[in-house]
Amino acid sequence: MSRVLIVEDETHLAKGLQFNLEAEGHSVQLVGDGESALDLLLKKREDFDAVVLDVMLPGKDGFTVATELRAAKRFVPVLMLTARGRPEDVLKGFASGADDYLPKPFELPILLARLQGLLRRRDWLQEGQAAQPTSAKQQSHDAEYDVFSFAGRTIDFGKLELRVNGNTIHLTLMEAELLRHLIRNNDRVVSRKSILEEVWGLHEDTDTRAIDNFVVRLRRYIEDDPAKPVHLLTVRGVGYRFIADP
Fold first, then answer.
1. Which secondary structure element, helix H or strand E, spans residue 101, and what is its range?
2. Is residue 14 part of a domain?
3. Strand ranges of the sheet holding 27-31, from the earlier edge strand across to the other edge
4. 78's torsion region: left (phi>0), alpha (psi -120 to 50) or beta?
5. 0.70 cut: is pTM over it?
6. Domain that holds residue 161
7. DSSP output for 25-73
8. What's 16's domain CATH number?
9. Is 131 inside any structural domain?
10. What is the pLDDT of residues 126-166, one digit of tens each?
């Protein structure tokens, strides 16, 4: 049974979500503002498997809550609810550390599917025993990786960590999912359509600028010079190509 925190100040909506999530077998706790959410997650260190986080909250908004969680190295999956699906709102949500977003008003089955997707991806990333670092040449055709190393960088998907030059960068689920998808297709062009459908579970007509924003962030993590990438290349008009060993 998964434990879910709902951060929503609209009482009728929060109660409705609680009722339906509990009917699906989840344990649910409700709070109505950002400060209460941070108190539970950071001060009391309560354990949740996912957070459903509204953007428009009294006091600290959802963007601030997500940012403070990630800054405190709490990487619980976050599904952000936005009042509008404007690209700038979506990008701001991802930049703050959200793993997925859903614009209001939304259909309940869609929210349940998105939330279950986050929980399922978390389980996939944490399954299995830790593996020894593996080179791109040794496992470039393998379907999955626990630990993957290239060019002095090591990605531990189970821990959601990227280690480079003695530093550890913590990844969100969505960042790790995208990296895994690119690595799985090492040296092959990956279309934006593929990323939308296979990584995020979105329809192909969804705005793709959020993908571009993710790629910019990943380049900051894995490239020596993000302005002149050698590992994560743009294929104009199509998508991206990851090359572990240029």
1. strand 100-103
2. yes
3. 27-31, 3-7, 50-54, 78-82, 100-103
4. beta
5. no
6. 136-242
7. T-EEEEESSHHHHHIIIIIS----SEEEEESS-SSS-HHHHHHHHHHTT
8. 3.40.50.2300
9. no
10. 554 334 444 444 443 333 557 899 999 999 987 788 999 88
